[in-house]
Amino acid sequence: MTGKPPVRVLVVDDHPVFREGFAALLGSIDEVEVVGTAATGAEAVEQAARHEPDVVVMDVSMPGMDGIEATRHILRERPETGVVVLTMSEEDGTIFEALRAGARGYLLKGAEPEEVVRAITTVSGGGVVFGAVLAGRITEFLTPRPQSGAAAAAFPGLTAREHEVLDLVAAGLSNGDIAARLFLSQKTVRNHVHAVLGKIQAADRAEAIIRARDAGLGR
After folding, report:
1. Which of 74, 110, 129, 150 is buried most, with the most CB atoms less than 10 Å from its CB?
2. For 7, how many CA atoms within 13 A lie in the half-sphere containing its CB?
3. What is the rounded distance in angstroms from the CA atom of residue 175 to the CA atom of residue 207?
4. Cβ–Cβ under 8 Å, residues 115 and 131
């Protein structure tokens, strides 16, 4: 025992065996106090308002309101709450939607119990935690990719961010995918795409893709 009060945790998952088993596992750990469980996103919002947990361990795929939307609702009312997503999904869109919703942790089901407990205690203290594999992917996605000299020479009027957006457009990504990849809003991406089309004098997105690929982008 460290003398610190235990971290108050709400466990949210629509699979009863996993939910109750995981809650029992956490409840056996001195550093954690399970204050409630929920089987749906709507129930998670209700239980979070009732119990005011320090951390919510949140599944993503649930009937009705999913874990992403539940996270938004919970943090809108209590922004100090830490949310750790614990899910099977490794999809880039799900990862970045969770981050944009305000989650401060993202782990895959199958993580060792010690890793989950570390994530809970870290997030309760204001930190951010991701599994090792996911952290590497997030870093890769958030790091601008260097442009070749030919690409830079072909479009000298573009900013570094506009080059990056054009590269992803040339790779065939939609505005929504680009927004998730660059951690931007879709409105911001639309503005960048509009600026790029104007600067390179492309009539439309298709022409921009052709010219960008000719310059070596989109690979």
Report:
1. 74
2. 26
3. 16
4. yes
The alpha carbon torsion through 218, 182, 64, 25 (nearest 10 deg) reads 110
In the predicted structure, residue 148 carries a pLDDT above the cut 60 = no
| Rg of the chain over all Cα atoms, to the nearest angstrom | 21
Token pair 């961010």 is found at 161
Higher-confidence position of 1 and 133: 133
pLDDT tens digits, residue range 184-194?
A: 888 889 999 99
- Answer whether 9's CB lies under 8 Å from 55's CB: yes
pLDDT tens across 43-68, in order? 999 999 999 999 999 999 998 999 99
Phi, psi of 8 (to 5 degrees): -85, 120
Contacts of 38-43 with CB under 8 Å at 24 or more apart are: 38/10, 38/11, 38/12, 39/12, 39/13, 39/14, 40/14, 40/64, 40/65, 41/12, 41/65, 41/66, 41/67, 41/69, 41/70, 41/73, 42/70, 43/12
Name all domains of the chain by residue range, CATH numbers in brackets. Answer: 7-140 (3.40.50.2300), 149-214 (1.10.10.10)
CB 104, CB 128: distance < 8 Å: yes
pLDDT of residue 132 exceeding 90, the answer is no
Q: Are 15 and 33 in contact (CB under 8 A)?
A: no
* Local structure of 11: helix, strand or coil: strand
Q: In the predicted model, what is the mean pLDDT of the chain?
A: 86
C-alpha span between 81 and 131 (Å, rounded): 20
Residues whose CB falls within 8 Å of the CB of residue 153, separated by 6 or more in sequence, listed in order: none
